[in-house]
Amino acid sequence: MPTTTRFAPSPTGYLHLGHAFAALTAARQGTRFLLRLEDIDATRCRPAFAAAILEDLSWLGLTWEQPVLRQSERMGAYAAALKVLKSRGLLYPCFCTRADIADEIARSGDAPNGPDGPRYPGTCRHFSDDERSEKIAAGIAYALRLDATKAAAAVGPLSFTEFGAGSAGETGRIAVDPLLFGDVVLARKETPSAYHLAVVVDDAFQGVDLVTRGNDLFAAAHIQRVLQMLLGLPEPAYAHHRLILDAAGKKFSKRDRAVTLRSLRASGLTPEDIRDRLSSARQGIS
Ligand code: GLU
Hints:
38% of the residues lie in helices and 16% in strands.
């Protein structure tokens, strides 16, 4: 049975009731509970939010193993993983801006949707090595994308284990769709990494064998399982949990100041009150 689980918030705002539910759920599942701050996006993450996360989780009564892993300190590990994928011919540089991608999608009139919106139409996949070198030499900024079709061929049929609620109750061994996200970005123009790459590298580094997180990230397990296989990383199991909803039936949002743990605490609520509120919110779980 898996034993090591984690909570991996991004310090882009204060924790709210949804995070409290996620952190308490994760901490209950394993015998080892780890914390990771997913702070690679320097434009959105703030040290003050990172400090507040640690404080709010402690206030809730949670404890975790030290050290806390900060993704901003792990760029070398992500670069090494990119090098492996590059040497296998599975990455290509993408010079497109958001506007280029939107134009190409509008032009082709054919944009299959992935979990994060329309899939990348593949514009830069078709460049020759010479064309790529020319653009790079001209100083055009580029992201690195996974060639999902090549990756699918490289990994063959794959599956992952879901112990949690899964998406729409899918549990057990779930067949991976390696093309679900299309040619996903693994390194951004401004940051030499991106979410899916950093997560798989760090879950393996931290020895996480049970990835516990909300159902909104269920689809991510498909591409993350592919990356684990390509990088020769161990396979964790997954326990995606249901999301708690606000009174209007919507997901809590970082923009909704009223439900941050800070403001609830300032209004006099205790950690026990928060736990009670989360268990009564369970009826609203979707
Ligand atoms: N950092 C992600 C978030 O805050 C969670 C990543 C994960 O649990 O895999 O939504």
